[in-house]
Amino acid sequence: xxxxxxxxxxxxxxxxxxxxxxxxxxxxxxxxxxxxxxxxxxxxxxxxxxxxxxxxxxxxxxxxxxxxxxxxxxxxxxxxxxxxxxxxxxxxxxxxxxxxxxxxxxxxxxxxxxxxxxxxxxxxxxxxxxxxxxxxxxx
Length: 139
Ligand SMILES: CC(C)(COP(=O)(O)OP(=O)(O)OC[C@H]1O[C@@H](n2cnc3c(N)ncnc32)[C@H](O)[C@@H]1OP(=O)(O)O)[C@@H](O)C(=O)NCCC(=O)NCCS
Fold this sequence. Notes:
By secondary structure, the protein is of the alpha+beta class. The chain has a single domain (2-123), classed as 3-Layer(aba) Sandwich (Aminopeptidase). Helices cover 35% and strands 22% of the residues. The chain is built from 4 helices and 5 strands. It has helices at 8-20, 34-43, 86-101, 115-123, and strands spanning 2-5, 48-53, 56-65, 70-77, 106-108. A hairpin with a 4-residue loop joins strand 3 (56-65) and strand 4 (70-77). The radius of gyration is 14 Å and the shape is globular. The relative contact order is 0.15. The model has no long low-confidence stretch (mean pLDDT 96).
């Protein structure tokens, strides 16, 4: 298994399929349209990571650093490869890349009821923050 940077042309279709199959854990929306992914990776190309095993994509995670905080999106591991340390390997590589950019802290969202992800992120050292999340659709 190796961790590498996402490549738009050759990886997009497989990664979208992986996310779509990730049960309730990942909601795909308009920000996951190909043109939006392309827009996103123009900003942080090295923070979108793939886990690959013998040429097959088995995991992915997308990070975004705004110069102050990182947001982590859409971590997923193929259900046949879970509980083998691949999610941890993706997160540790992302954390390493973030440290090297001077990032001090990251945030991520977990859907209510996603106990699997909660257990995973707690093992990764994350804690629940006492905050409300507010959002607004533009356009
Ligand atoms: C969450 C997810 C990415 C974890 O990936 P994974 O490769 O199975 O995780 P790892 O094997 O690297 O596990 C890392 C640690 O978390 C723990 N862990 C992972 N899944 C767990 C679970 N369901 N319950 C309890 N602990 C769990 C492991 O035991 C391991 O602990 P350790 O390193 O201290 O021994 C994977 O379950 C997944 O893709 N879920 C569906 C998509 C999703 O919900 N993504 C999160 C979006 S917010």
